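#struct-help
A.M.: can someone run this one for me? Single chain, 759 residues.
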Amino acid sequence: MVIDMENIQNLLKYIDPASCTYEEWTLVGMALKEEGCSVNVWEDWSQQDFGRYHKGECARKWNSFQGASAPVTGGTIYQMALDRGYQPDRGHELDWDSPIDSDGAIVDANWIEDRAVIEPEKWHPAQQLITYLETLFEPGEAVGFVTKSWKTEKGKYVPSDKGIYNKTAGELIEKLSKCKDDIGGVVGDYDPEGGAWIRFNPLDGKGVRNENVAEFRYALVESDDMEIEKQNAILRELELPIAALVYSGSKSLHAIVRIDAADYSEYRKRVDYLYKICEKNGMSIDTQNRNPSRLSRMPGCVRGDKKQYIVDTNIGKASWAEWYDWIESVNDNLPDVESLSDEWERIPELAPALIDGILRQGHKMLISGPSKAGKSYLLIELCIAIAEGRKWLSWKCTKGSVLYVNLELDRASCLHRFKDVYQTLGIPAASLGNIDLWNLRGKSIPMDKLAPKLIRRAQKRNYTAIIIDPIYKVITGDENSADQMARFCNQFDLVCTELGCAVIYCHHHSKGSQGQKKAIDRASGSGVFARDPDAVLDLIELEITPELMDQQVNKLVCRKCDEFMTENNAYTDDISEDDKLNSKQFAAYCENVLCQDKTRTWRWEALKDIIDEAKEAAEAMTAWRIEGTLREFAKFEPVNVWFKYPAHYLDASGSLADVEPDSPELMMKKINEKRKKEAKEKQEEAKLGFDLAFEGLEKDGKVLLSEIAEDVGVSQDTVGKWFGKGKKARQNYKKDYEIFTDEQDGKRYLKRKIVEKEG
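D.P.: on it. Structure tokens below:
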């Protein structure tokens, strides 16, 4: 910030000299002199530290500041103010419960009706102070107060020392109740011209600095440049949770406001909020009163020809939390209710389409699908389509600028993907300036923190669309919780509203079969994900049969052969159109033509490599069906696409039209087939082990059943069952072996079967 006199005066309001060490106090003086201020500025500021201020000390110290090679500047004062709660006007990050743009304006000070402040008819000084103590303190809490004062050159009375800080509220109340209105006998005599002061927060009994505050319970609101009656009216209209409202005996009311902060950090935040609301509603607040250890005017004392007295107690809302909720509800930024009859003849135009038949500008779209569906590539294709004003799959896109928020890929991979997709689809890179990338891998933060940062960076770029890939990186909370995900999705509304652009994002499927679910129910987590966007596009994989895969391989190989022969001008006129549609016939033709000249057979070798690559690419292709749930447009027929790395292609031939996505029945069939295959492989492996065992034990073409049972690790009965007729019988064993009993020794043996050959 620019350090000028006005800024310095404002910054000094945040720095309580009583909170400064001697070194910090000296640094402030050096900085003020370096910035061209007079010693009077330092003097006036220093006088606020009643306990340590000594007249003339500032001037003597000031003259010793002779300059240095590295001078102390106004930046030191700026940093000290920041450390003590100063917040420059540079925006802020929103919490979940923060209002989007609440200005806090509730009353109009120019029109509010004044409210009189009435002096007590009967003057009982002791009761005034008793009421104050009973309202603000517990009996055992230490209270700080000052009764000694001195008069400045400007004629202002200020406290002359730290005063008393180790008396409890209960002790003071007991003595006041017996003093017959001689409060000087309890708290000490004071100068009636200057009055007396009291601290509104309980202390620890060891001092009067901020660190000696035992409870951060109250804050002081005071305004000196407004009529007393106007102050009274605004404070009440704002329904501040005021514990005690005290007339200072001069130009202001002292409102002791309930803050109920857990610690000093929270106290500072709440006081900043409190002062902002007061200022928004016409009160010029004395910001020097921010400190929790600050002195306020003591009721029950006389100040000149006026009395310091309690105007009221316990007014406004009952607590800080109740008041805060009320302020935020009043300033909810919701639009007014409107009558349809008023708007019937002037209904506004609909937002133009960004993606024809799918999404309007300024709306939200979700793309959901399983892993390996190429969702990121699909989003990159959409980026390019919008940037270049081209079709995205079968939908025309309005040309505009796009911000791609990359949360998953490293920077190099992201850049390569964009270039790969451009080149693979054969799109001229004519409008690269329409695409901005924000690479946040390793730096992603929850969406509630990301949204304001995103808005700040994007405000001047006039984006047509912002694409966030993927959202699981920025989800805050449990994705299965409807209320948490509703608040999460509200951040996308915030981006759309603030920037006037579309927000497009992708999410993954839940586990399990998806074929029998509606497209809107396939995304993982709470149903909020699918019901919040204006458009949901869902990808589901199609099962490619061997026949269909052969068709794709045949088609791709034929195309590569045709491209190669055309580029090399190698065609002769002796190939039929039918042969050009058969990859085997076409490849044989190419080999024959290209190898006629033995010195140029390298061309055939080159084409063979291309054919092999084409086969691999075709076999790696996956098929997908895109279904949609739309809020603004009519439902469209499902779109079938092939994903051949690194891009998606429409199924122009219609070969996928009759293919069904996975279903529970199809999934179970696959599982059973897999189990059968695994069981067969296990049996074959076991049979191989059995054969090896037989060969190792074989004598005279036979093996004792007990010996082979022991070798393969089972009982004789189990081996016997393998050759029986029950469920455990193994046909591949019975095909090659048989069991017999030797007549001579009566033992059971296993021998190979004799296979008789015909002829």
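A.M.: thanks! The first helix runs from residue 5 to 12.
D.P.: also worth noting: The domain at 125-330 is CATH 3.90.920 (DNA primase, PRIM domain).
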